[in-house]
Amino acid sequence: MPWFFYLGRFAFWDKYILLGELVGVRFDISIICANFDL
Questions:
Q1: How far apart (Å, rounded) are the C-alpha atoms in residues 19 and 36?
Q2: 1-38 burial, b for 16+ CB within 10 Å, e for fewer?
Q3: What percent of the chain has pLDDT over 70?
Q4: For 38, which DSSP code?
Q5: CA-angle at 7, arms to 20 and 14, nearest 5°
Q6: Is the CB of residue 28 less than 8 Å from the CB of residue 35?
Q7: What 3-state class would DSSP assign to 12?
């Protein structure tokens, strides 16, 4: 499910509405890692 990760990065503002809170937490970690991974 790689497209889920892409949605989490590009549409992080809608991840809670589309995927939910539980999945959103994982995307939050993914986004944080992406932000620090320059």
A1: 23
A2: eeeeeebbeeeeeebeeebeeeebeebeebeeeeeeee
A3: 24
A4: -
A5: 45
A6: no
A7: coil
Q: Which domain holds residue 7?
A: 2-36
Q: Give the total number of structural domains in the chain.
A: 1
pLDDT score for 34 = 75
Structure tokens at 24: 């959103």
Task: Report the predicted TM-score, pTM, of the whole model to 2 decimal places.
Answer: 0.26
> Does position 1 have pLDDT exceeding 60, yes or no?
no
Q: What single letter denotes the amino acid at residue 15?
A: K
Tell me the two tokens of residue 38.
């320059």
